[in-house]
Amino acid sequence: MNAAEKPDWTIEDSSDLYGFERWGNDYFGVSKAGNVTARTLNAEVELMEMVNGMLERDLQMPVLLRIENILDAQIHRLNMAFRSAIESLGYRNEYRGVYPIKVNQQAQVVEEIAAFGARYKHGFEVGSKPEIIAALSTLEEPGSIIICNGYKDQEFIELGLSAIKLGFVCVFVVETPTEIPIIIERSRVLDIEPVIGVRIKTTANVSGHWNSTSGDRSVFGLTASQLVEMVDLLKMEGMLHCLQLLHCHLGSQIPNIQEIRSGITEVCRFYADLVKEGANLKYVDLGGGLAVDYTGWGSNHGQSRNYTLSEYCEDIVDTLKTTFDSYGIEHPIIVTESGRATIAYSSILIFNVLDTTTFEPTRLPERTEGESQLISNMRDIYSNLSEARLQECFNDAHFYRNEARELFKRGQLDLRTRAIVENLFLDLLQKIAVITETMDRVPPDLEGLKLSLADIYYGNFSLFQSLPDTWAIDQLFPITPLHRLNEKPDRSAVIADITCDCDGKIDRFVGEEEEATVLPLHALREGEEYYLGVFLVGAYQETLGDLHNLFGDTNVVSVRINRDGSYEFVKEMHGDTISDVLSYVEYHPKEMQLRHRNTAERAVREGRISARERQQIIKLFNESLNGYTYYEKEE
């Protein structure tokens, strides 16, 4: 194909526009047909093929799609990257990964991590009694590590001690001094020697969104003086040999690799002095921190990262080796609690677009004799449209539009005239926006014009249920169409959910090099669904979601991709029914049905409806109780 025959838009253009190669971690791409694909095991499957399979199984949108192979691949990559770094740098011990259950507690996720991670003895980090119960009922591989963080009461500690008897390495990480006497007392009563860890407060304070767990103001961890008191108490009790793990947590999303090196150096200093005190340290737990590059910018922006997985592992191993060698200390087992990076890539929220609102003129009538002076004034602005007079035209358009509204309010202008003025106003703003795209310097008043004219695409989902961090902490997630990527997107849009809340919208998007205020999308086609995917949502979103407007959990589908390019639906879970979510907020569906029946029967007695109509009304009510909480299109 020569240059003259080259199409105006290609799938490569779409791939570059939406950034699959930048943020996708090699897991996502675009097929020749213009559909988003998931890649793993050297195979590639179109997500639209999976969507069609969901619909055939009566799994309506929205759906949370989990691709189990991607979760497996992330566990494999993490363990192999550390193994490679350890071998190449001559580190004289091993790596042991643990997954923090709090990042996504869903049983399908935890069970898959336990099953696939068994080959690496990949363990769990738990911070509550329900989480340790989940770990004990899921882990099977002896020697797997369970890191017990958080506040621990007597029952929590007894559960952990029982895990030691079952063959797991269960470590009680002391977060506060009050936990130590309980650990000592219960271990003696049950005659089980505990494995004790201690969490320290480092002075290193990392940048990024989730940095409050580091530094002096960290909620958890012991200060230097509290650490000395703990060592003295364990010495006095003859249990200092039980102190086997040093723990720190710099942050769950560390964007800058230099901050990781700095934090580890300080940890090593604590480790060395504890060894001198007589502690039997064997493990150094560096907590979370391995970032997800949500934006694909490869920078130290809070939602990006300026390093690769291999660089992360090599820097950790090299810093530990160099520092411990200088102290003449044996190399400990390296533990990290990578949750976000383990789970984020494997989950995609998929939803259909229900409708759009556009801010374009719908009808521009020709000039007529005797038309309103306001209309004539608005038309005259067109003759002045130029880069030099753009601000003036913008101001004039607003003046006449506002005057029309004021006259209409006072009854001095009819509805049709107001509609013409507002259509001309929208047309002028669209033309002004086009001119601003070629300007080197845009007047401040016009900088937000593109956003104010953007379409609103109404998605069939609840932001508060499925993407709560978008609302709560301005988290960015990559969002793309799942199909039609062989077509040039011809609309600029923001996305609104179906909750009746003005905050239920997404107007911040991942741009090529910086944050964007609009997302390029395709115009809807009559009678054809349009599907969008929100990627990298595996971490935290499912368990942080709330019941805003009583929209419940979405349908969930787990698939496995096979080496031959086929795939299987391995798990599916229908989302909450209306009855489910009402019961969560203390309604009793059976009582509700009875009260509704009585209301309908009273209407029969009062002659407002017939007995047959009563049955139809009751049937609709009861069927709705058992229906999906989201928008369902009629077949």
Description:
It is a single chain. Helices cover 40% and strands 17% of the residues. By secondary structure, it is α/β, with parallel strands linked by helices. The protein folds into four domains: 1-67 and 343-359 and 454-575, Lyase, Ornithine Decarboxylase, Chain A, domain 1 (Beta Barrel), CATH 2.40.37; 91-338, Alanine racemase (TIM Barrel), CATH 3.20.20; 373-447, Methane Monooxygenase Hydroxylase, Chain G, domain 1, CATH 1.20.58; 580-625. Strand 24 (555-561) and strand 25 (567-573) form a beta hairpin. The model has no long low-confidence stretch (mean pLDDT 93).
Task: Tell me the overall shape.
Answer: globular
CATH architecture classification name of the largest domain: Alpha-Beta Barrel
Q: Main sheet, how many strands, which sense, barrel?
A: 10 strands, mixed
- Strand percentage lies at 15-25%
CATH class of the largest domain: Alpha Beta
Q: The CATH topology of the largest domain is what?
A: TIM Barrel
Going by CATH, the homologous superfamily of the largest domain would be Alanine racemase
Q: Radius of gyration in whole Å, from Cα?
A: 30 Å
Helix content: 25-40%
- Please, what is the average pLDDT? 93
What count of helical segments does DSSP give?
A: 22
The chain-level structural class is alpha/beta
State the end-to-end CA separation: 43 Å
Q: Quick one: how many beta strands?
A: 25
Total discrete domains: 4
Poorly predicted segments:
none
